[in-house]
Amino acid sequence: MSCASCHDPHAATEFQLNTPMRLNDLCYTCHQGKEGPYIFEHAPVVEDCSLCHSAHGAIPDNLLTVNEPTLCLQCHEFHFHAGLLSPDGPTEVGGTEYENPNGANSFNVAMTTKCTQCHSQVHGSDLPTQTVPGAGYGLVR
User: Fold this and answer.
1) Can you tell me the distance from the alpha carbon of 2 to that of 89, in angstroms, rounded to the nearest whole number?
2) Domain residues of the chain, as ranges?
3) Is the whole-model pTM more than 0.70?
4) What per-residue confidence (pLDDT) applies to 52?
5) pLDDT averaged over consecutive 10-residue blocks of the chain (141 residues)?
């Protein structure tokens, strides 16, 4: 991969790309697996790859513009398990009791982990999430 993979110094088009394709289409020439289409799409992915990724390099992993969870929290709110103090025992969610492995410090645990540890399919998914509040859009499969 070199500068000439995306740029043409002699016949550059708008924004100095070597193609009239929109930015996402240029990215998909190498990253076909991220393109979709997905039944459950993550809207920013469809809109513009550069909302989350920096094509010219970045300190965070995967050319992200900012580390997780800061990147995700720019658009998303804390989850119920991240923003509230929770009892040490079981917690009822959607009529089902779940154990709370993180205890009362759920907020601290959520802020010191990456969102992608649970939400692994951030580009989109064809399989619905099995959660009541997620309505299929949890992007975990």
Assistant:
1) 54
2) 36-125
3) no
4) 92
5) 77 62 86 87 88 87 87 77 56 66 59 76 80 59 56
How far is 56 from 41, CA to CA, in rounded Å? Answer: 25
DSSP labels, 22-52 = -HHHHHHTT-GGGT---SEE-HHHHH-GGGT
Q: Report pLDDT for 79.
A: 63
Q: Token pair for residue 75?
A: 């658009």
SS3 85: coil
Q: What angle do CA 60, 79, 73 make, to 5 degrees?
A: 35
Q: Counting Cβ atoms within 10 Å, is residue 5 exposed (0-12), middle (13-18) or buried (19+)? A: exposed
Amino acid at 61: D
**Tokens 């924004």, residue located:** 15
Q: Which residues contact 139 (CB under 8 A, 6 or more apart)?
A: 40, 42, 119, 120, 121, 122, 124, 125, 129
